[in-house]
Structures are given as C-alpha cells and as structure tokens.
Amino acid sequence: MISHMVPNTGSTARDFCMLERNILSHFKLALLLSLMSSSLLLHARLVPGEQDSGSGGVPLASVEFAAAMIAILAGIWEYYSGYADLRQARAFLAAAKPHMIMMSLVAGVVFGTCIVLLVQER
C-alpha cells in the first residue's frame, strides 16, 4: 500500500487546515441555501404577518437548491485539486477557474434571490 503522507515542512499543516476550512465553508453555504429553498417551498416567514400567495415557490426554491449543489461541487473540486497540489508540493494559492465560475454563479443566484424577494415584498 502506498502512503500519501506529506512531510510537515514549512506551511504544510496550515495549508491543509485551510483546505479543510474552505470545504466546510462550502458545506455551510450549501446548508444555508438548502434551508432557504425549504423555507421558500413551505412559505415560512421570520416575521409573522399577512401571507402573500405569489411568493415564487417552486421555481425559486429549485434554483436555490441547484445553487446549493453547485456550492458543494465547487468545494469538493477546490479541496481535491488543492490536496493534489499539496501532495505534489506545488503552489496552489491561485484559484482554479472552474471553482471561480461555479462560485460566481452561486453568488449571482443569491443576489438575484435577494432582488426577487425584495420586489415581492412590495
């Protein structure tokens, strides 16, 4: 069996902890987006008040859930590409383009959802 041990020289341990923190942050974002999706489906409101019938419902919740899945895939992509770079002792501080594209899409979904929900409140 081949060992995948990486010698702890320089900032190796810190870099590995950074990779773990990043993937956990992606999972946290995905959980929040799926919670938003569920609340849109259930018409849950933080402040009780008059319930409006046209809340976006299924289409907006589907987009939120898709963004959650994209966030998970982006986190896994970044973790495994960073771990491969760490094992081969290559610099990996520059973000990979697929990860940046996926996270830009997720950020666009979050921004668009904010706009849709603000418009629906009026």
From TrEMBL:
Keywords: Membrane, Transmembrane, Transmembrane helix. It comes from the Eukaryota. The chain crosses the membrane at residues 60-80, 101-119. The keyword Transmembrane applies. This is DUF202 domain-containing protein.
